[in-house]
Amino acid sequence: MPRAYINIFARYLILISFVVLCLPWALNAQGSSQAVPAADVDQVINRLSDNYAKLDNFQCLLTKFERLGSKTDLRVYKYSFMKPRLIRMEIIKGKNQGSIAVYKDGSVRARHGGIFKPFVATCKITDRMVTSLRGGTITESDWLSIVDKLKAYRQDNKLKNEGIRERGGRKAYLLAIDGLDEDGVTARKLWIDASSFLPLASETYEGKILVNSMDYSDIALNIKIPDGLFDL
Questions:
Q1: At 57, which helix (H) or strand (E)?
Q2: Residue numbers of the domain that contains 193
Q3: Which one of 61, 72, 105, 178 is separated from 209 by 20 to 30 angstroms, measured CA to CA?
Q4: Does 92 lie in the same domain as 4?
């Protein structure tokens, strides 16, 4: 076979190989960029409320950041929730790693990690031992609190839909509240997952300063919860 034909044949094989290798990637990229339908504030909150009502329980990782003056705190929790309102938070990264708090029947049972692990304390929900850097309570992190807060903001006509954004690699509806006056808090942002219509993240601001953020990841819905998980 003449050398010219050999070169053409070789280039043809290279082109075919390139197309075969890139086609799956192109198809996946096309699938991941499918358009998310637009939705107004009422539609987002109604879907959020409906989907939350269908939940029995969920587990996830909760990454929480807080700022108070010059102090900051960043922790990752293994988070469990079961209706009507049982909450378990275990610190797996950050200050007091290994500590566990359980909210049940209106009070909190908590224990530190390490050498103090055998000792369990029963506290009021507002006790300093079981509140965050900014004084937040364990129930402020659950989705019921977020649903109720959004409904209240909608009732006061404070919510606006800033469109579809990405958060944690997922597409979400971004709901924003500006012009607040809540103990220094002036604005909030909440991301509602565009697929599940459940909370994905939230941020709280004092002016332009981010003072609180919560990101929910590795979410598992309506799973089998081990017996005794909310006993401590």
A1: strand 57-68
A2: 41-221
A3: 61
A4: no
